[in-house]
Amino acid sequence: MEDKKNSMDETVKEKDIKADPEASTEETKEVRGDKTPDAPLEESDIEMAEEENSEDEDAEDSPKDDQKSGKSFFRKDKKEKKDKKDLKIEELNDRLIRNMAEFDNFRKRSEREKTQMFEIGARDIIEKILPVIDNFERGLGAISEEERESAFAQGIEKIYKQMFAALSDAGLKPIDAVGKPFDPNFHNAVMHAEDPEQGENLVAEEFQKGYTYRDTVVRHSMVKVVN
């Protein structure tokens, strides 16, 4: 009886295995204690794994490259800023030197013009005062020796000397004429004479005194020249 029962069970199992071969395989494996081996990897899966590894490596290397590129860019930018700053300083320095030179030229030109204006104004005043000096000299020359000791004559003489001293301090000087060789730069010959006893081309007489103001002729001397 038991043999028949066992044979019937085996027959039922064989039918089940034929009906569901996959389940039977698994049951067979479980019965045997085997494990299902993993399915072989395809080429596409291998390439994807390699790409993931390369991306990971690039991700690891990229921060270093980015850091290096960042440093180089920062250095380049810093150098450009320094070059621009040096160029700006050089331009400002050149502009300052030019402005100082222009200001120095302007100062010298202003001083020269001021001096010239002062000399022109002083010369104009002196030219107007010279006739007064001439009148003082003519008046003192017309006073006799007896009248020269009077208070009036002495007062006139003192005024003349004081005025002439003030003009001399300002730069006025009389031109020496009598006995000097004739010089057209200082003398104005209004008369000629023949005198074998005197030298040739000499000033024999002065009719009106000439003056210079700071080495510039204000008035030429009116003289007589001996040939």
What is this structure's SSE topology?
Elements: H1 2-19, H2 21-32, H3 43-142, H4 151-170, E1 172-174, E2 187-193, E3 202-208, E4 211-213, E5 216-219, E6 221-226
How would you describe this structure to a colleague?
- The protein is α+β, with helices and mostly antiparallel strands.
- Helix content is 66%, strand content 13%.
- It is built from 4 helices and 6 strands, in the order ααααββββββ.
- The chain has helices spanning 2-19, 21-32, 43-142, 151-170; strands at residues 172-174, 187-193, 202-208, 211-213, 216-219, 221-226.
- The strands form 2 sheets. It has a 3-stranded antiparallel β-sheet with strand order 1-4-5. Strands 2-6-3 form a 3-stranded mixed β-sheet, with no helix packed on it.
- A hairpin with a 2-residue loop joins strand 4 and strand 5 (216-219).
- It starts with a helix and ends with a strand.
Summary of the model, kept short:
66% of the residues lie in helices and 13% in strands. It has 227 residues and is an alpha+beta fold.
Key terms:
6 strands; 4 helices; alpha+beta; 227 residues; 3-stranded mixed beta sheet; 13% strand
